[in-house]
Amino acid sequence: MHFFSAAAFLLVFVPSLPTEAGKCPRVCSCDSTKLTVACVGKNLTNVPPTIDEITVKLDLRGNNLQVLSRGAFMPTPYLTHLNLQRCNIITVKEGAFRTLGRVVSLNLAYNKIDILYQESFDGLSSLKELYLDHNRVEEIQPGAFTQLGFLNMLALTHNQLVYIPNMAFQGLNNIKWLRLSHNSLNNLATEAFAGLFTLSRLSVDHNELQFFPTQTMNRLRDVTRLDMSHNPMTYLGEESVSMAKLTHLYLNHMSLQDLSDQALSQAPRLSHLDLSHNQLRNLEPLSGPKELASLNLTGNPVYCNCYMRPLREWASVRGVKLLGACVGPPHLSDEPLQAVAPLDMRCRSRGESLKDEFEKDDESTGSTPPTTKPKLKVKCPVNCDCDIEAQHATCEGRGHSKVPRGFPTKTQLLDLRSNHFHYLPANSFPGTNQVVSLHLEFCKMHEIESGAFRGMRNLFYLYLSDNDLTSLDPGAFAGAPELTYLHLEGNRLAQFPGSAVALLPNLFVLHLERNAISKLEPTGLLSSVTPKLRELYLTNNTITSIAKGALDSAFLGTLHLDSNQLTEMPTHALSEAPNLEELSLSRNSIRWVGANAFQPISQSLKRLYMDQMGMEKMSREALVGLGPRLKALTVRGNQLEELPDLSPLTGLEVVDLQDNPLLCDCPLLPLRRWIENVSLEVTATCGHPPEIKGQKVRDVHVFTSCPESVSPPDEVVVAPRPPKVKKPKPSPSKAPGVKARPAKHKAKPPKPTKNRPQKKPVAPKVTKNKKTL
Ligand SMILES: *[C@@H]1O[C@H](CO)[C@@H](O)[C@H](O)[C@H]1NC(C)=O
Ligand SMILES: *[C@@H]1O[C@H](CO)[C@@H](O)[C@H](O)[C@H]1NC(C)=O
Ligand SMILES: *[C@@H]1O[C@H](CO)[C@@H](O)[C@H](O)[C@H]1NC(C)=O
Ligand SMILES: *[C@@H]1O[C@H](CO)[C@@H](O)[C@H](O)[C@H]1NC(C)=O
């Protein structure tokens, strides 16, 4: 059957059906009826060039291809299935698959791919399934997937992603299932999943998410199944889950200690909720889901006293199936929740019930073991909570003045924030070499001794935000070489801590906002010191000068210098930052931007923010070199009367020119025309001459009298009027304070969705239910 249909297909579409059957490469085996070729495990370093052109399935598993170069599959344009698993592939060059417009399934699993470039998957216009699991992907470049408009399933599991940037999956217009399990994700940008309107299933289990990413998830309008299990979350607050169509939610194997009864109030369709293997001791009836069918509490230390009764009653009334068993009180231990009558869930007296509540920690070791299986005695410092299974320990806000010792050796997340350590001596964390994430925010620390973190070989995230550090010892981070994300914002550092971070060869993101840094010195702070630094945040310091060479870095992509005291463009300092993509200079006082100000970074820059700088003039040549690559430009709230020509910036998705006193006269005509011509919402207002002050550039008549303003009549003469509907640009990304929307909706402007800041994760609190029943 297959043979006939395939043959018929070929008779129609292949002009000359090759007759010779001798085209099978020596190391391969070919089936000329099924049109398959398999060259498996042959250590090939190239795709064999003599494969028959009519081949539809090509299996190259287990070779040694290393680099897939442009046009690598040119000889086999009819392929529908291509298997490249375990081929030692490191790089997929732009255009490697360009000739494969019929491939529906591509398997690149178990290779060594680390970056997904913008055009890596160009040409795969029929692709339905893409397997990229078990690689080393740590970066997805913008536009990596834009050509994959038919893709249904994308597997990126078992990679090294720590962060998903805005719009990462743009272009996946038919995606149904996105699999991101088994990465190291600890942060998802608010618009990370923007545009995925067809997505129905998302897997982000086995990652490092410490908080439910509410804002990010509520962009996913059609998702029905969400798997978040195996992430180190401790608490789910009100309205954490705001997903209108969600039916299945997996929050098992996390570290939940508490869950607000309103946590799911914005998930009305939820039918299956898996909370198994958390640390929930009791739970209130959940508001929101109207059709909840099952609630899995297996493996939680559920204490079946009067506090559990409302949930039990609610479950009976609503027909919610409860899974799990009671761990206590003793006469109910091991009893399935579903089998306990609500009236048996009692607190014998107020005193006893309080005792029940507060003696929970003694139970596992005390005289009345709650279960028949003896529990392992949990090693945990006094006045801390350790969760062996979740590999999580917290002593948050317990008034410790010294770092407690004796955490379980497998602890991966250690939360010590809001204590009063003042000073952190050397070797403060013995026996914690499994800790990945260490929280020391708000600990009133003013000094960290050399070697304080020694031995923390797996430390990846370190939070030292909001302390009183004025300087850092050069050896402060000695012995923690994996440190990748370092938070030092909200201290009083007077200098860039160059020598301290020089011990961190893997440093990727450095937060130094809200310090007192006044200068960036020329000592090659970045390239020699932190070769992998990708994002540097210096917002809200007191920087007045940046020496040439201070920002030299071949790798730096994001630089925030906003809210400082710069008075000049730091052009010279950026001459060796050839990969800078995002630069924020807002809220400095740079009055004047000269010619070629961005020339050194013009080949890489994508987002440029220059709001509220008191800028009075931009040279006509200020933006020279910037072209289609630039996606965002903001100059809001300056004193500009004129603007340079923006028409070379054909890739703009976000532009903000508001609150500038533009001089609406003939020199501004090019801007006016540009505004009318682009499919972007651009608001620009006249500040002069006085009689039209406050009117929109787009609406005023002054330009009709300009020489050479022979424009089409409907553009200029009749105003105001919405410009013609144009093809919308790819959906614009949003940046704070920036409006952008496709012109399509211009007839009646929709209210721009308020860009609420991501709800800051509330420090997890274990609230005790104080109600007396
Ligand atoms: C595969 O090829 C490489 C060189 O291309 C060679 O060093 C290696 O020994 C080969 N392995 C096998 C199993 O043939
Ligand atoms: C409940 O959770 C347990 C433990 O994770 C699991 O084995 C079981 O299959 C779950 N039951 C249902 C109905 O989901
Ligand atoms: C800068 O930091 C100071 C002190 O933390 C704060 O009061 C101020 O609001 C911040 N300014 C901006 C623009 O963030
Ligand atoms: C208007 O846009 C078109 C294409 O989008 C471009 O070719 C043309 O030069 C633009 N005109 C002006 C005045 O910017």
UniProtKB/TrEMBL annotation:
Gene3D superfamilies: Ribonuclease Inhibitor. Residues 300-348, 660-707 form the LRRCT domain. Residues 23-57, 379-413 form the LRRNT domain. One of its GO terms (biological process) is inflammatory response. Residues 707-719 have a biased composition (Low complexity). Residues 741-759 have a biased composition (Basic residues). SMART domains: LRR_BAC, LRR_TYP, LRRCT, LRRNT. InterPro entries: Cys-rich_flank_reg_C, Leu-rich_rpt, Leu-rich_rpt_typical-subtyp, LRR_dom_sf, LRR_TM_domain-containing, LRRNT, Toll-like_receptor. It is found in: Secreted, Extracellular space, Extracellular matrix. One of its GO terms (molecular function) is transmembrane signaling receptor activity. One of its GO terms (cellular component) is plasma membrane. The keyword Secreted applies. Potential negative modulator of chondrocyte differentiation. Inhibits collagen fibrillogenesis in vitro. May influence chondrocyte's differentiation by acting on its cellular collagenous microenvironment. Belongs to the Toll-like receptor family. Associates with collagen and binds to collagen fibrils. This is Chondroadherin-like protein. It comes from Dicentrarchus labrax.
